């Protein structure tokens, strides 16, 4: 069946790993490469899967956990790459900012994957810094020649990223202040200029919850996009720690 989207469940596992490399992709995007025997058999079937990353909140304060995207998994080297947007506050971001090669890293999941087939005629990926790992992975995993447009809000040119892909990728970067991350207008203005190509397209939206709601409404009501060919997620919610928001297709 054409455009068959499937949910796949995985056995939930917790893993104790080792930090093998630390690098800055941009000034505010930190990339950790993780490895270790317990990573063997790791499965991530969709670019927007999420894993739990665990960090101690301090002596006697328990353990914090946050959702992050598996940016890349290399089964041959048994290495997992995870990107952290450093403008986010919280104990896991603080842990990532101070981590060193050789330190322990604890993760869990992914619990499941929403597998979207590559038989769509075009793709549109919209989001903020927190969505860049998922957006970048999707761009890099699309088939050669596939038309894909990304519209991503960042704080400036130094936060723009390049992706290694054979897809036909058009990158649209929206510059706005970090304080505007919870405002829809910067991304909405860019989205209004997007003209959907002919054929069937899949749209992915991930940003602050209120921003995602506005963008999703525009795509469904103004563009008339097929709801089943849209995935919209609030990767964070302004003023609420460790909170996400899901939207039904």
From TrEMBL:
Domain FAD-binding FR-type positions: 12-117
Name the UniProt record assigns to this protein: Siderophore-interacting protein
Pfam family membership, one: SIP
Organism encoding this protein: Novosphingobium pentaromativorans
Family statement drawn from the similarity comment of this UniProt entry: Belongs to the SIP oxidoreductase family.
InterPro entries: FAD-bd_FR_type, FNR_nucleotide-bd, Riboflavin_synthase-like_b-brl, SIP_FAD-bd, SIP_fam, SIP_rossman_dom
Phylogenetic placement of the source organism: Bacteria, Pseudomonadati, Pseudomonadota, Alphaproteobacteria, Sphingomonadales
GO molecular function, one term: oxidoreductase activity
